[in-house]
Amino acid sequence: MNVETFRYDNKIVRAFAIATVVWAVVGMSAGILAATQLFWPEANLALQYITFGRVRPLHTNAVIFAFVGNGMFTGIYYSLQRLCKARMFSDFLSWFNFWGWNAIIVAAAITLPLGFTTSKEYAELEWPIDIAIAVVWVAFTINLLGTILKRRERHMYVAIWFYIATAVTVAVLHIFNSLSMPAGFLKSYPVYAGVQDALVQWWYGHNAVAFFLTTPYLGLMYYFLPKAANRPVFSYRLSIIHFWALIFVYIWAGPHHLLYTALPDWAQSLGMVFSVMLVAPSWGGMLNGLLTLRGAWDKVRQDPMLKFMVVAVTAYGMATLEGPTLAIKSVNSLSHYTDWTIAHVHTGALGWNGFLTFSVLYWLFPRLYNTKLWSTKLANYHFWIGLLGMMFYVVPMYTSGVTQGLMWKQFTDDGFMQYPNFLETVLQILPMYQLRAVGGLLYLAGVVLMAVNLYQTARSGKLVEEEEAKAAPLSAQPVHEEKKYRPHRFLEAKPVLFTALTILAILIGGLVEIVPLYLIKSNVPTIASVKPYTPLELLGRDIYIREGCVGCHSQMVRPFRSETERYGDYSKVGEFIYDHPFLWGSKRTGPDLHRVGRKYPDAWHYNHMEDPRSTSPGSVMPPYPWLLTQTLDTNVLPARIKALRKVGVPYPDGYENGDAQKDLASQQRDVVVGLSLGEVNAKPDREIIALIAYLQRLGTDIKNQSQTIAAQ
Amino acid sequence: MIKNVLTHIGGIGLYGIVSICLFFAVFVGVLIWALTLKKGYLNSMRQLPLEDDSRLDAADTTPSRDE
Fold this sequence. Notes:
The structure holds 2 protein chains of 2 kinds.
Chain A: E1 4-9, H1 11-37, H2 52-84, H3 91-111, H4 127-149, H5 158-177, E2 180-182, E3 188-190, H6 194-229, H7 236-250, H8 265-277, H9 279-292, H10 297-302, H11 304-326, H12 329-335, H13 339-368, H14 376-409, H15 422-460, E4 466-471, H16 487-492, H17 495-519, H18 535-546, H19 561-567, H20 602-610, H21 612-615, H22 626-629, H23 637-646, H24 659-677, H25 687-697, H26 701-711
Chain B: H1 2-7, H2 14-35, H3 39-46, H4 48-51
């Protein structure tokens, strides 16, 4: 037979592996900074750039896209070449992928602290960076599919299907969620508003978890676990069912992030049912992983790499049982907006993604450098310190989540709220926040041990830059045994068709979920008294977005007595039709703000922003003194009004040429007068004035409606 | 025209039913598909990740769930 000699590219694998370790340290350090600020706000060193609202997205982006992203590429670039018996399709695209992706991360690390954010979770980056992400992702996809097309192994192993699903789905998600209207170089407004924006965002957000944090890592599990255990996967049949069931179901489940919100009920129920069904394929995958180790548990005792892998797969099982549980509406009514969600995502991030990445790195480095791991003992220390860190993180977060959730809902025997002051429920859980930071610190310490171990391993060997291999080209390989038509076998030999079917599977879910919202007017009942924001309120809202207030404050009062008693009338879907983007939030570290408008005098807000503890003793909100001194940039107003008009906000034509500025100045004076009533002297051109105008507007339009009706 | 039709589809509850049926059909299809696959083929697929590494013991004879 005609056998070809070729070389695997190990240099690109090493580059991604190093980036993975570096970004792990950076991303987790940002996490510890954020965690510390939650019980000690002064940890922001009075700098606006590292205040919680800006550090949180930095942490999530660094961990998801930098750490896990590079980890994913490390594993894919190594395993894909070997499973395809081919070098990567294009060296240029490989390095374009590497430098492009890491440049994007650097851009994120610069723009997020500076306050350039769309505020949409895990999609915070502004439009020029979004375009760069799309370009780099397309390069990766071409490289992936190109390698598969020139493979020397007729059949595509299950890991490759997961890689294909990752590549195409992330592209679809990213593009649809990032559709926005630029209003300047680093500012844009999404084309969707209110409930549509929320639904698209959580369709994206949920599936970023599915197709960025889960499917590529399942592919890595199906490759590296059999490798490390030196035995084939437990059941290949189960892996086929796992794959198709998972990608078909995952995409429908997004609305479970919006239960009991103003999202139409049918969409909520759909999201809930599909989320519960998700447990089946997820556990199929987990069992397939764990059962691969049957008869090899003695190896787990000796090999730290397998230890990490076992905990990773177990954490995957726990997180995917918990996820569907949290998606049940009655459970969600308690868990949503609390630290329970934080505990849940960290079981996934620290356990599944973190430990699986560590496992792959410990396995790869000795092979890339043709040597032995420098210290197995140190790797074992890493394992135990990491596991301990995870426990110290997750257990306190469950405790604080359930405690606070129950306190929010507690009524006295006489029917009054037991804890009417939100702050009381926060002070109760502060010790948990401190423990959580300790947990994070332990976990990071483990990563540092790993970095040392991997560095020493690399030093003790020499990088095998190009690894020689031999295989016959596909054209020279006989098509064995089966003349008979076998559907999946047929599919595995046809990557293009396979990719098309994968796209079809994920698009069906996406379309059924979203199309009706576009087309059926009755889904968004309009409220006549709801009007667009005034120019000053608009700029105030942009400051709210810049400071990341949405990270701690929701704007969505759910229809429970415990919430309407605490915050006011529950939120209606028609109130958000001019909200580009929606700011419903997903976590209440502070109280909901949707009905905060006119609840307090202007001066209260002024004093509160200057020093939250002057109005709310013990508050963990950071002070925002810079808002009192920084001048409001009104030059951006025309571009922003024009952009919003283009996406459907009915500002009159030409409003931005003069009238808007007049309205702005007049409202600034009104706020200054309002402040003087509370004995606060403020200049009208400061940022705080705009923010107060916005906060005082929040949720008040609907009150105007009842006043109008009363007057009639 | 299409927009008009879709704007007037009644009973949005139907969406839930349709999606469950669709999922069920796909799931059953995949299940049948997987169950009809031949053992010899499944075993050769399972071995794919282990093939490229000469350091591994090729004589590993763990019985497979698929056999």
